[in-house]
Amino acid sequence: MKKYNVILLLIDGTRIDRLDKFPIFKRLKEEGCFFSEVIASAPYTLVAMNSIFTGMYGSKNGIDAYHKMFQNPKAGCKTLADYLTENGWYTRGDAMRLSLVSNQGFNKFTSQEDVPDPDFSKIHKEILDETMNEVSSEQPYFLYLHYPKIHHSIKESVFDKYDDFSQEYFENKEENLRNYDEYLKEAADYLDEIYFKNISGKQNNDSIIIIMTDHGMGIGEKVGERAYGSFIYDYTLRTFALFIQPKIFPKGKAINELTRAIDIMPTVLDCLEIPIDQSCLRMQGQSMLNLINQTEQNESNIDEDSEFQKIAYSETGGVNGPWPSPNSPNIKCVRTKKWKLIHNLTPNTWELYNLENDPQELKNMIEEHPVIVTKLKDKLQSIIDDCVSD
């Protein structure tokens, strides 16, 4: 077993397509290994975070809908914090809201939701210092620090002002994007303070640092969804993860293979050489370490059957939008690097997109590729069945 500290910096609601607008993110990518195609299991924090911390989709761990707040994963699920606490780590979390992320397995778990206008750089620096001062030098620790200010700013500037069909909002995407970039700039400043001024150099040799997001954020691309949660298009599902630990992850390396947010937990356990508990519900995620030294394949040379071995699944049931379903997911999708199939259960409609040629998901090709549709429907059903098989 390798007793690295684990520090997870979670920047809520980050759009991957805006990272390179800010020098701090370019600097961060040079620090470690950047996974650029991490698909979220859901486009909202509750399901996305509990999937990350269990290595399972929401429909398997039992937290798969907005109205399942304040719940722990169902019996048999073992969280990342469970594994680490049981193996001698001190585990400390600071979440966006206590209702959104299970505290299962954590030694100490807090939230700043009742603090007016919290300074997250200051608060999280204090948590870092407190942990390093209180924990024995012989004991490794796990820190989960959630930065929610992008979400809070979107709530104030979008959710509190517009509904899911407000013409004024959806006709001003350029202004919406400018506003979003301002919020992301604040997040970049936070990472500069927390990572470069307080972690880098002090922690890099004996820590695994993960910088990632839970889901992306819309700016009015699709009428019916102001920002996130109602649909499952790539502006909310395509995310990233940066792993920093020079003995494991090559600096400046980019992994562009399709991966999933449920792969984060098994990757951490693999790095620490902690075996999977076979008596618990089986994780659906897989370690990504095998991708580190793999020669990246040329996508044009991948035959169709090979491509369909790499599948990511996502689901949602919005509180708002055209088909609200806060008690259970009613929109589900599977995707490869190239293709995405979406099933809207409430109106029972299907969508198929060629993500290489149509990354904005504007042209529904459901009638044009029946063979692709059949294969993806089979993959979708297989994952749905797997979620209820234990």
Automatic annotation (TrEMBL):
SUPFAM superfamilies: Alkaline phosphatase-like. Signal peptide: none annotated. It holds the Pfam family Sulfatase. Residues 5-273 form the Sulfatase N-terminal domain. PANTHER family: SULFATASE, SULFATASE N-TERMINAL DOMAIN-CONTAINING PROTEIN. This is Sulfatase N-terminal domain-containing protein.
